Amino acid sequence: MFAKLANIVIKNPWKVILAWVILAIVVIAFSPSLSKYTTSSAGAGLPGSFESVQAQNIASKYFPKTSGATGTIVVSATNGAVLTQSQETSIVGLASQLTAEKIPAVYQVAAVNAQGSPTISQNQKVQLISVIFEGQAGETAVNNAVVTVRNDTTAYFRGTGLVGGLTGNAAISVDTTNAYVNAETIITIATILAIILLLGLIFRSIIIAILPIIVIGVVHSMAQGVTAWLAQGFGFQVGNELAPLLVVVMFGVGTDYIIFLLFRYRNDVVKHAAENGTEHLEGAVSKIGSVIASAALTVITAFAALLVASLQSLQTLAPGLIAGVFFMMLAGLTLVPALFKVFGKNLFFPYHPRAPKRITQAERMAKITVAHRSVSLVIGLIIMAGLALGCLGFKTTYNQLAELPGSTPSLVSYNTMASSFPAGYLGPTQVFVSGPAPLNQAAISALYSKLVATPGVVGVSQPSFNNPTNTAAATAVQMSVVLQANPYSTQAIDLVQNTIEPEVNGSVPGDFAVVGGTTAQLVDVRTAMKSSLEHVIPLALVIVGVIVGLLLLAISAPFWILLGVALLYLAVLGTVLLVFVAGFGFTGVDFTLPLVAYLFVMAVGSDYNILIAHQLREAHKQGLDKKAAAKQAIETGQPAVTAAGLILAATFGSLLITGIQVLQEIGLAVLAACLLAAYVLTTKMLPALSSSFGEFFWWPGHKKSTANEGEAKSTEHVGS
Fold first, then answer.
1. How many domains are contained in the chain?
2. Based on the domain organization, do 393 and 528 belong to the same domain?
3. 155 and 181 fall within a common domain
4. What value does the CA radius of gyration of the chain take, rounded to a whole number of Å?
5. Which of 227, 260, 344, 410 is the most exposed place for a label (fewest CB within 10 A)?
6. In sequence order, which residues have a C-beta less than 8 Å from that of residue 693 and are 6 or more positions away?
7. pLDDT tens profile 133-151
8. pLDDT at residue 705 is higher than 50
9. Do 683 and 610 share a structural domain?
10. Is the confidence at residue 716, as pLDDT, over 80?
């Protein structure tokens, strides 16, 4: 199949290029913008069976005016001093002015609490103004209202010696979106520069350094357009994480596929230097095509496993990542070879590939690895197991606000508030009781008293009924519970899950009592995340195993490859924990990291192992003995794997400079995976293992070819 495809592409390069140009114009010109379907509140996306979702439904039904996003304007003196009486009056005046402005999507602005008292801290240094929005965090109208409230607050306090900042879930949503937009810009610039520099150094060619950037850039835009079409057609929105991840994934795997083809093509050019190099392009494409297709299919299926996750924020990563890798695979098999054909010998300008005059680094490494294969395996195991020990300090965090850069406005305002108020003021927990008949007032009072007396609770608002003029006839009630701890903290999540929810559930016989709010949502997110891990990890493992097995036509080899990838995952996760938790003192890694890192490690480890395993199989089928086959596989495959690993590591390394904790952790995880896979697992441990097992490594598949055994003893050399 790949031989036929290669023949068509190489014989019709201009037709292939024209087809891609037309397809790119159609997709880019007519598809909607992906930003239209991107939101910071794709968020939990929890199914309706979860308690926090049921609580939000009750809030929307019985308390529609106060069920929207919330915000808190935190006001303090610029010099940190105690607020004066005139300043307190000025703060109240801000609330009045914002109310008078009738800002669209703002329902209420109040400088007093439910009891009518000013919300000023005990130390008299910070005063709060509450804002209730009409709509949920992440909605366009609410986002616009956040900007207006902030601008008007800044203008109002200018020259007064006061400073006010907006925090709360609506403001956090806006700041999160802005942070990811800035991160995408940083990542794109850093990624492009890294790829140009590394490709230029590796191949010493101006065209090879620039061409992949242009190709991948166009294909990336197409993938964004297709993802937007999918979001439009299936009615979903994607989270902020997709845009920066799509950049590094496409530029990373795209460069990998191009490198795989380039090294194979360059090898053939060197081997047949006296002939026209482009004549061997078809052979290179037909031979490496199955590797590119299998590697891409492995990555696609690994990402597809996200579709069974319980969280929408994880599910919606899948379509974009799948589209990106799929289009990159098609480009790697058709567009890239067509462009190589058009450039001909000028592709490598100004350097012309030639056979090395001295023994190459790959040849030295092959000789050492095969001669000391037991040592190679032991050293690799020690490195992997040593890093995996970091998993003993495994901790996760759900504090998405703390993961943003320190200069984020909502985080700065929260820190000011937390210096004078309990941290729980950021997002009170909501308790709702509803029923078909008038509520049991005695049971409601008892529940209120129980909540007030709960350790870790600093305040509970008086019950608010859906029929305030006749509470005896009310069928729903709401109470706000302020916790001592930050609502995003593990301490708060544990308190709500283990204490408050059991107190509330079933507390009013015959009625429906549930807990909602930020912390209750995170309780459900934690539960859903555990379920996602239990379903996605084994599913991805099985799918990848089947694909590798079909490619290699063996059972034993895929087993050892997947075992190596599993060890790689533990080493990578341990590395992240050692660096961020043990090293930098983070409270834990982001709760999504274990799953997202697993999929990327599975993809990276499988990609490089597939390439080397393909080289091993090819040498084995030629009739080489187990040591010679391993040696040839390292010599022909190691340069491509290490180059691809280095570039992919640099690509994902750009995430480290974004200032967003979850992106930094993903960046380090994939960077570590690339380096460990390329320099330890794939190029040393896998060949060492195959040369130790021999025929059994390919059980029950391949047998040595005897027809060409004599002429197959020679080894292909790779120019360095």
1. 3
2. yes
3. no
4. 30
5. 344
6. 556, 626
7. 999 888 889 999 999 999 9
8. no
9. yes
10. no
